[in-house]
Design goal:
The structure is a single chain. With 111 residues, this protein is of the alpha+beta class. The chain has one domain: Herpes Virus-1, CATH 3.30.40. The protein is built from two helices and three strands. A three-stranded antiparallel beta sheet has the order 1-2-3. Strand 2 and strand 3 form a beta hairpin. GO terms for molecular function: ubiquitin protein ligase activity; zinc ion binding.
Length: 111
Amino acid sequence: MEAIARKKVEEGYDCSICLEKFKEEEEGSEMPCKHVFHSDCVEKWLRINRSCPVCRFVMPDEEGESSGGGNGNLGILGSGNQEIVQSVVRVSSLANLIALAMTASGLRSEQ
């Protein structure tokens, strides 16, 4: 994918997909949202999901790529609505976090 850049990763950081630490001077793949993963891990992930596993940033379709079908592919909304899709995903994630925090603090009973 063109939107993913290669980047040297500092030792001690871990890949959020496989949970293994990066080795010294190992190169990772940085998504447009700035999260970094092992290249193999993120390539496999993006074949199934079209979003970042950490923040759910929706990856743009590549030139010439079909925008229909596939888990996590929001092509049905059209490529011109990418910003709207990103906003909806962020709000949805925030709402889920608020509900989880309220449940954990006892402010809301689980249904």
